[in-house]
Design goal:
alpha/beta; ph1033 like fold; Restriction Endonuclease; five-stranded mixed β-sheet; 11 helices; 15 strands
Length: 341
């Protein structure tokens, strides 16, 4: 059954240990229940029959109606239990019930003792969006980060908790979350610049990059395996004198998985035609490559003794956004002018 509701609960400092012990015994408990007449079922009936004004001030304070919404398979998270910065979760197994004892903490519901788990809310496995909801925000509140909470449950199941959050972890998490969106940008590039127009786009971007001295857009049957030739000028690392390097570039417009090996054979031919070329580049709008493609590419690198770079999927979007942003802004501007004329 899919997880629908997660509730965060506040517990008084002096009741934290009691709350944890009760959970381990299979009963979730909640405060604001310090008068004997605070059974929520009874308070709800009185409100429906006679109105809320018939409740005493203490009864109104104890009327925590959200507890009547609890259903089996919901989850509760006790904030700062057993200690500050820790949280304890449990899976609910019954609806609300009332059991009076002297004092407070008499609102109750059953939980699965095997589901009770205490974790550090600053653990690396706790998503930042979930972490933000695990800090006191009142007596109780909904945790709407359901997907992130399910990820936490999976981490508990797999035993992967217990790591500190680092900046590298944050970057990895960001990369994981934005990668599908970046891949979608590559799909849009493929949609607007198929085939030869993609070669022209890459050529225009290269021409505007620092250090690129010359770009030759080859194209056609006589390209000798190089859709583009790019000459890069950079200072020598020792003398500082300028030196030039030639890149042979193959541009492929693909959707989905790239399985065609022609790009590799084309780069091989380009190396033979342009022996001065020191590196090769394959640009493909495909999302991934096949295992056969990876093996053939590895073989080419080994036999040619030269680096052959692969820009594919999200890498293509990153290349266009990083190096062609001014072109994109220019195209936007042109479109606006055309529409206004």
């Amino acid at each position: 059954m899919p997880l629908e509701r997660v509730y965060a609960l506040k517990v008084g400092v002096n009741a934290r240990q009691e709350a944890l012990m009760s959970l381990k015994e299979g009963v979730g408990r909640f405060g604001w229940s310090y008068v004997e007449t605070a059974d929520l079922h009874e308070l709800k009936r009185r409100i429906e029959d006679d109105g809320i004004d018939t409740l005493s001030e203490a009864e109104r304070d104890c009327y925590q109606a959200f507890l009547l919404e609890l259903r089996p398979d919901d989850y509760v998270v006790y904030i700062n239990v057993p200690t500050y910065g820790e949280c304890t979760l449990a899976r609910v197994t019954s609806e609300y019930f009332w059991k009076w004892t002297d004092g407070d903490f008499n609102h109750r519901f059953q939980v699965d003792p095997a589901s009770v788990y205490t974790f550090d809310r600053n653990d690396a496995a706790v998503h930042p969006a979930l972490n933000a909801r695990l800090k006191l925000q009142g007596r109780w509140w909904h945790i709407y980060a359901i997907t992130e909470f399910e990820q936490l449950l999976e981490s508990i199941k797999n035993g992967t908790l217990g790591q500190h959050v680092t900046q590298a972890h944050r970057f990895a998490l960001l990369s994981e979350e934005i990668r599908p969106h970046v891949l979608e940008i590559t799909r849009r590039i493929h949609h607007t610049h198929p085939n030869y127009s993609l070669e022209k786009l890459v050529s225009e971007i290269l021409e505007g990059m620092p250090g690129i001295r010359e770009v030759q857009l080859q194209g056609g049957a006589g390209d000798h395996g190089a859709d583009l030739l790019a000459t890069v000028e950079e200072p020598h690392p020792i003398t500082g004198h300028p030196r030039q390097t030639t890149f042979v570039i193959q541009v492929k417009s693909f959707d989905g998985e790239h399985s065609d090996l022609r790009a590799i054979s084309d780069i091989r031919r380009a190396f033979e035609k342009y022996p001065e070329a020191s590196e090769g580049v394959i640009v493909s709008t495909a999302a991934t490559v096949t295992e056969d493609f990876e093996e053939a590419l590895s073989k080419l690198r080994s036999e040619a003794g030269k680096p052959v770079h692969l820009l594919i999927g999200p890498d293509v979007a990153a290349f266009v956004l990083k190096n062609g942003w001014e072109l994109l802004r220019y195209e936007d501007h042109t479109t606006q002018v055309d529409q206004g004329s």
